[in-house]
Design brief:
This protein has about 325 residues and is α/β, with parallel strands linked by helices. Strands 3-2-1-4-5-6-10 form a seven-stranded parallel beta sheet, sandwiched between helices. α1 (about 10-20) packs across α7 (about 205-215) and α9 (about 255-275) runs antiparallel to α10. The chain has helices spanning about 10-20, 40, 55-60, 85-105, 140-160, 180-190, 205-215, 235-245, 255-275, 280-290, 295-305, 310-325; strands at about 1-5, 25-30, 45-50, 65-70, 105-110, 165-170, 170, 195, 200-205, 225-230, 230-235, 255, 290. It has twelve helices and 13 strands. The N and C termini lie far apart (about 50 Å). β1 (about 1-5), α1 (about 10-20) and β2 form a beta-alpha-beta unit. The chain has a domain at about 1-180 and about 205-230 and about 295-310: Rossmann fold. It is globular and about 55 Å long.
């Protein structure tokens, strides 16, 4: 089995490549020209270079492949409105769709976002039937991922594509080279987060998502979306979990809603004046006040999504950061 993985050098992509290789399949890693990612150098993969926005290069990368896992995306949330983010996530996905159809792959598995569905509460977490609600944040990242999802479903229904979409929540684990979500762990380790809001979100181990993505090559129903979720935790409880694992003190200050919104607004205004990204934009402030809780019941049943305890994801992420020199700046305090 030959599997093309777009975004193979990313956080989730790295873990997907390893999972697919562990199953004895051949991996063709689609990577931007000029990028050198040492985490892939240690693996037996065939690298195919190109630009996601160049349709011909994507088509050439897919030649001879049996399956495609489309994990490439622009995850930037600043600036909130970004043409390149929209193009990479929407137009880039359209190019992958066309490549899949032309190569006549057996299935395309695309990585979406849980934010394409409405969030919920602890008692009634969001699922695949929850209507899209995150458009209120005004983030092209979220909107473009939703648009890409709709395009895939349209091509399944009307153009003969076989595809499954998996929609992760907040992922944690190893190979977070940027780092992306792992920034939160590093900030907590270095005691740079002064407080928390009275809300929370869903967390999942990135390796569990990789397992489900690989399972989706042959499992799940075409045209369906599957939320990749695990533990719904308040920010207070998550901070305590991280503090226990990393042996640091958790943030103690509960930040009131009006203050966090004001801070986000002022921080964003200052960013416009200085040209530097804000520490917390207004949209991020809004998100931090919502309960981004979800259930993975559908994915557990149909894709055999594992449910590894989040403390393991935290520990593996931290160990990887430590082994790769990400802890050099700052010193944790107990």
């Amino acid at each position: 089995m030959k599997v093309l993985v777009t975004g193979a050098d990313g956080f989730l992509g790295n873990n997907i490549v390893r999972e697919v290789l562990d199953r004895g399949h051949e991996v063709y890693a689609f990577i931007q020209q000029g990028r050198h990612i040492k985490t892939l150098d240690e693996l037996t993969v065939t690298k195919r270079y190109g630009d996601l926005l160049n349709a011909e290069e994507v088509i050439q990368a897919a030649e001879g492949c049996d399956y495609i896992i489309h994990a490439a995306a622009n995850t930037s949330i600043w600036p909130q409105r970004s043409e390149i983010t929209r193009r990479v996530n929407h137009e880039g996905t359209l190019n992958v769709i066309q490549a899949a159809l032309q190569a006549k792959v057996k299935r395309m598995v695309s990585i979406g976002s849980a934010n394409s569905f409405g969030n919920g509460s602890l008692e009634n977490p969001g699922d695949e039937s929850s209507p899209f609600a995150a458009g209120k944040y005004g983030l092209d990242y979220i909107d473009s991922k939703r648009d890409a999802q709709e395009a895939i479903i349209d091509h399944v229904e009307n153009h003969g594509l076989d595809a499954v979409i998996i929609n992760p929540t907040f992922m944690l684990g190893p190979y977070d080279t940027k780092p992306s979500s792992g920034e939160l762990l590093l900030a907590l380790y270095h005691q740079k987060i002064p407080g928390y809001t009275a809300s929370g979100r869903n967390f999942i181990y990135v390796k569990d998502v990789a397992v489900a993505a690989a399972n989706a090559l042959t499992m799940g129903r075409s045209g369906e979306c599957y939320i990749m979720a695990n533990e719904n935790l308040s920010y207070k409880d998550f901070n305590q979990l991280v503090a226990d694992e990393l042996d640091v003190q958790p943030p103690k200050l509960l930040i009131p809603k009006p203050f966090i919104l004001l801070y986000g607004a002022v921080s964003q205004m200052w960013a416009y004046l200085t040209g530097k990204p804000p520490v917390v934009s207004y949209a991020v402030a809004q998100i931090s006040l919502d309960t981004n809780y979800y259930t993975a019941a559908k994915a557990v049943k149909e894709l055999q999504l594992p449910q590894t305890p989040i403390k393991i994801a935290v520990r593996e992420a931290f160990n990887w950061f430590q082994e790769n020199g990400y802890l050099n700046k700052g010193t944790a305090r107990k």
